[in-house]
Amino acid sequence: MKTPAHKPSKVSPGRERLAFLEEAYRHTLESLEMAASLGIPEGIRPLGTVTQILNETSLRVRKLLKFKAVAFFLVREPSGDFYLARCSPPGRARQMEEEMRLLVESGSAAWALQRKRPVFTSPGTMEGQLLMHSMTTASRIRGMFLGWLGQDIKSISDTSLTLLTILLRGSASLLEGMELYSLFRKANSDLKAKVRDLEESQRSLKREIERRRKVEEQLKHQALHDPLTGLANRTLMRDRIQQAVRRSQRRDGVCYAVAFMDLDKFKLVNDTLGHDAGDKLLVRVGERILECVRQLDTVARFGGDEFVIFLEELTSPSEAIRVMKRVRQGLARPFEIDSHNVTVTGSFGLVFGPVRLSNPDILIKKANTAMHAAKEAGRNRIKVFSARMSGRAKMNAALLTGLSRAVAGNATGVLYVPTLSSVDLRLSGFLAIPTWRAKGIGELRDEELTELAAKEGLAWSLWLLTMTKALDGLKDWLEQHQADMAVTMRLKQSQLPPSGLAQEVLAGLDRAGLPGSALRLEIPEDTLVSGGEHLVHELTRLKDRGVRLSVGDFGERFFSFHGVSPSLFESVTIDSSKLADQPAKRSKELMGSLVSIAKALDLSVVADGVDSKETADIIANLNCLGMQGESLSRPLTAEQALKFIKSSSVCTPQLPAGDETKKS
């Protein structure tokens, strides 16, 4: 009997589900073990370079799958194309690059980037299979992984592919993190550099602000102080006085004073020691004044040798007088300037405040008026302003206005002092001097009139007008009497124009139709020395036209000048009046020495200021070119000069005594 066939027993659903769970559990354990062996729970540790990250990724990928070669192609910014960043082994780099090029051209690379998981494809130049996988992060595509498989695709588990995706995404994230970190470091470095630049800019700005502050303070100081002495200037002085005037208007009992000081004969220091020494003296004078005044007083230099002293909070007017006396006594002590002991004095004008309706300009003007009164009284004095001085100042102002109108209206005149030969007393020419009859005062002439014109800036205009009239007169005389005569004109420093001296003089000669020899210019020694090269150039032009040049106030400083320009001058003028106080024998010796020196320089001599018959006798014995002075003849008008010419052409004029001439 046959045994019936055995029927399979039916598996219960519970056992089937249990078997599935066991399989899933086993598979999970295997995946975890594989992931643990790859180090995925810890992730790829941060490395310093792209090459280090790709090398680490390459090692882990090869633990998952068998590859003949692996290559990592990264995206080049900003073009977006791929470049080979890492190939293992390096010998397959060219083949892998060619395969990547074909994949890009066929669109397979783009497909793999979209899939974001493993894509298998056939190679174009090699045997086997290629595995492509994108290297992406949540924000961007970092590159493409390309592997040449060394195993059958069917042998690859899903777990391996999943872990491969995790590895490549982690690698992409690490690359992006490294790039971001690099960007962060660069940004941080740039930020630090900018912070350093900002700090340096702040330091530079602080330095610039400090520099500008100092410059502003310096400019403010320069705007309110004299550049030579460092004392206050006009602006600051006016402000200090204005404040005192306002205080006096608000409350009673305010007492102050303004003093105007001018150094006496300061020009002599400039002429003898030079302008540099004069500047040093002004600085020392300012320091000496500051030593003598109180700390609350203000000392200002108004220009030249003029100083203004403002005395505040005085207890009485007598206190101001005491301060001014201290200043005057302080100036009396000698100053040592360039190894020279220099002694100067000052003339002081003082005005007290408060005065009704006063302002700084009025007070300074009144103090200046009082200072001029001190000058006229003999210098080195202190004068307090009075209403009488104001009237005199107005008269002087009217006098200057009148002179200005007279010069503009051709209303000044000329007087002529004959120049006679010291041998036979024959007439050789005239010294022309300006004259003007002032209303209410009388006649002003020569130096007195020249100084007045210089105050109004009219010295050159008056000189030119005098020369023009003198040349016109000489032309008339020469037409009536054929004689060898010349007009002498003294030209002092205050009379020099800033330019055009030679041009104006030659134009005057041309208008009169006279040769250059008809004019003799007498230039004082101090004018010649201070005039410099410009004056020498102008005088040379005149010399070339035949104008006769003479040095006035002949002294030792002319020697150095003559050594440079020996042919410029033909004569010297010696002031014989300076010998009047000497005994007759001593006068003769001194005069003889000067004449000998002049002749040694091949220069003729004209004696000026002959004020007595005795002096004339001395000069006659010294064989000078000529002599002139009031002992020979008083200054003559044009008509009187013509008569003198007529008498001199007939016979030799008699030499009158000095007193008789003055009486005539």
How is the topology of this model organized?
Blueprint: H1 13-38, H2 50-64, E1 67-75, E2 82-88, H3 93-106, H4 108-115, E3 119-121, E4 130-136, E5 141-149, H5 158-224, H6 234-250, E6 256-263, H7 266-273, H8 275-292, E7 298-303, E8 306-311, H9 317-332, E9 335-337, E10 340-342, E11 346-353, H10 360-376, E12 382-384, H11 387-408, E13 413-420, E14 427-438, E15 442-445, H12 446-455, H13 459-480, E16 486-490, H14 501-512, E17 519-524, H15 525-544, E18 548-552, H16 557-564, E19 571-575, H17 584-600, E20 604-608, H18 613-621, E21 626-627, H19 638-650, H20 658-663
Parallel strand pairs: 11-12, 14-16, 16-17, 17-18, 18-19, 19-20, 20-21
Antiparallel strand pairs: 1-2, 1-5, 3-4, 4-5, 6-8, 6-11, 7-8, 9-10, 13-14, 14-15
Helix pairs in contact: 2-5, 7-8, 8-9, 12-13, 13-14, 14-15, 17-18
Q: What characteristic shape results from the CA principal axes?
A: elongated
Portion of residues within helices: 40-55%
The biggest sheet amounts to:
9 strands, mixed
Number of strands: 21
Rg over alpha carbons: 56 Å
Number of helices: 20
Low-confidence stretches: 40-44, 650-664
The class by helix and strand makeup works out as alpha/beta
Oligomeric state as shown: single chain
C-alpha termini separation: 204 Å
Strand portion:
15-25%
Mean pLDDT across all residues, rounded? 81
Structural summary, described in words:
The structure is a single chain. The N and C termini lie far apart (204 Å). This protein is α/β, with parallel strands linked by helices. It is elongated, with a radius of gyration of 56 Å. The protein has 20 helices and 21 strands.
